[in-house]
Write a structure and sequence with these properties.
With 205 residues, the chain is an all-alpha fold. It is built from 9 helices and 2 strands; from the N terminus they run H-H-H-E-H-H-H-H-H-H-E.
């Protein structure tokens, strides 16, 4: 990441910034640090955690602060809107586009694959681990690969569980109940993940 001398300078800068600028949240502090040092958010959070453990800085988690419109429509929430858009587009394609309507059926199949094999696991994993995946990695690129792989595995498992539950209901395992169930699952857990991401990134200093 950085050499020890630079790391010490970053530590000193953070402590001075906290005392002088008094940022209200770690999100604000991350922005101030990135204005001076070209570090990723993940690297900065690791440094902040280290300083907290050494009692150099102190912060407490906010547990009841609702997501604001600024976070909802920020670049960090792009994953949320993309997930919702894919879910809605898939449901629309399933109920509007006939199976023999070529070439639109290819778009339907592509959306359906993402909807079943990736999206449920992605939003579920995001709700459980809004900032980092549970497996430690050495870079953000590896972190993204780990999240994608875990999302794929979780999606297969979650889809199977949804199908098993539907099998014991009056609706059975049919296209409409499965589609609507996965759609509801995606929307609910995407909203939970968005809220958790906001609370994790907004910690009172």
């Amino acid at each position: 990441m950085t050499d020890q001398q630079t790391l010490n300078q970053i530590h000193e800068f953070i402590i001075v910034t906290v005392n002088k600028n008094t940022p209200k949240t770690t999100n604000e502090l991350v922005d101030l640090i990135q204005q001076k040092y070209p570090l990723s958010e993940k690297e900065i959070l690791k440094i902040l955690t280290k300083l907290k453990d050494e009692n150099e800085i102190h912060f407490t988690k906010i547990t009841k602060q609702p997501a604001t419109s600024s976070h909802l429509f920020s670049r960090k929430s792009l994953w949320f809107w993309l997930s919702i858009a894919i879910a809605i587009a898939t449901v629309a394609a399933v109920f509007v586009v006939p199976e023999n309507a070529y070439p639109l059926t290819y778009a339907r199949q592509l959306l359906g694959s993402i909807f079943v094999l990736f999206l449920p696991g992605f939003v579920f994993l995001k709700a459980l681990y809004p900032s980092n995946v549970p497996i430690a990695t050495s870079s953000e690129n590896l972190d993204a690969i780990e999240r994608a792989a875990l999302s794929l595995g979780l999606s297969i498992a979650l889809t199977a569980i949804v199908g098993l539950i539907l099998n014991y209901t009056p609706w059975g395992i049919r296209l409409t109940p499965i589609t609507l169930s996965l759609f509801a699952f995606t929307i609910i857990f995407a909203a939970v993940a968005l809220f958790r991401e906001y609370t994790v990134n907004n910690i009172a200093l």
